[in-house]
Amino acid sequence: MRTLNCGRFIIDFDRPRIVGILNVTPDSFSDGGRFLAPSDALAHARDMVAQGADIIDIGGESTRPGSRPVSVGEELGRVLPVLDSILGELSVPISIDTSKPAVADECIARGAHIINDVYGLRDPEMRRVAARRGAPVIIMHMKGTPETMQADPQYEDVASEVIGYLERQAALAREAGIEQIVVDPGIGFGKTLEHNLEILRRLGEFRRLDYPLMVGASRKSFLRKITGDGPDDTADATLASVAIAAYNGADLLRVHDVAPARRAVVVAAQIRGIDVL
Fold first, then answer.
1. What is the pLDDT of residues 111-140, one digit of tens each?
2. Segment 79-86 mean pLDDT
3. Between 227 and 1, where is the model more confident?
4. In this structure, is the dihedral angle defined by the CA atoms of residues 74, 78, 83 and 85, taken in order, positive or negative?
5. Where are the domains of the chain?
6. What is the biggest distance separating any 2 CA atoms in the chain, rounded to whole angstroms?
7. pLDDT above 50 (res 32)
8. Is residue 30 predicted with pLDDT exceeding 50?
9. 230-247: pLDDT as tens digits
10. Fewer C-beta within 10 Å: the chain N or C terminus?
């Protein structure tokens, strides 16, 4: 699958694409509380598109390590005003970052295009929603839940196990009638520093799944463990991970800082022999 059909938008994977993160939460690990107001969220989304974002990903519930879920009503109360404010204003598709079928259903009904589920479509109802709405899905791997995922995660072979999980979940999605699938190894979701590095080294192995591959390492804590920097000093480390992921075959790079990430992707793609200019 080399394109993603999102209503009036088509994402072509002839080159790596940028997914701009728009968190509308008070407690996300990096930018919680900055874009709660619809006007602030719209301004930030416009900026990201101007800087080169190909997709805007809206999330209304934090999935940082140790976070607890919010209710459907609370998540919709955060997301819908922002979604309504940006639909029709942007020239790119919108994905909704949620694990709740009711939230996904309402957002797709309102005009969002893609469902991005960090739980990897474990809930059969989420698969039914996506199939009924004809929405593309992003299936991510996470060990456990955000509350438990960093409690000593163990793997025999992290890349092989994550690939196997994504393959099984994609098969379930296709059985449910979902035709457009993106996979995400879930950097930082139930993985140690060593696990994350191993996945980034072995991204090429994920190509055998034959689905577009998304990688989200932006501002993740494993980068600080390498550099020893504080939580606000991950910009350079993030760009290194973005460039490596793009060079090793990622189709979508999910990032907070679009302009520098796009420059890193352009360089990585040029080294791979892909002309993106």
1. 999 999 999 999 999 999 999 999 999 999
2. 94
3. 227
4. positive
5. 3-272
6. 47
7. no
8. yes
9. 766 789 999 999 999 999
10. C
220 and 188 in contact (C-beta within 8 Å)? yes
Which amino acid is located at 137 in the chain? V
Q: How far apart are the first and last CA of the chain?
A: 23
Confirm whether 254 is a catalytic residue. Answer: yes
Residue whose entry in the numeric block shows the structure tokens 């004809």:
134
Selecting among 254, 262, 263, 272, the annotated active-site residue is 254
- 65 and 270 Cβ atoms separated by less than 8 Å: no
Nearest one of 269, 271, 251, 241 to 210, comparing CA atoms? 251
CA–CA distance, 54 with 92 (Å, rounded to integer): 6
Q: How far apart are CA 141 and CA 241, in angstroms?
A: 18
Return the ∠ at Cα 92 (arms to 91 and 95), rounded to 5°: 145
Exposure on the CB side of residue 130, measured as CA atoms within 13 A: 35
Helical H runs in the chain? 38-50, 72-86, 101-110, 124-133, 158-175, 193-201, 221-227, 235-247, 258-272
Looking at every residue in the chain, the average pLDDT score rounds to 92
Q: Other CB atoms closer than 10 Å to residue 14's CB: what's the count?
A: 12
- What whole-number distance in Å separates Cα of residue 177 and Cα of residue 112? 19
Whether 26 and 205 have beta carbons less than 8 Å apart is answered as no
Distance between CA atoms of 191 and 71, rounded to whole angstroms? Answer: 26
Out of 17, 220, 262, 263, the active site residue is 220
Is 168 one of the annotated active-site residues of the chain? no
Length of the chain counted residue by residue: 277
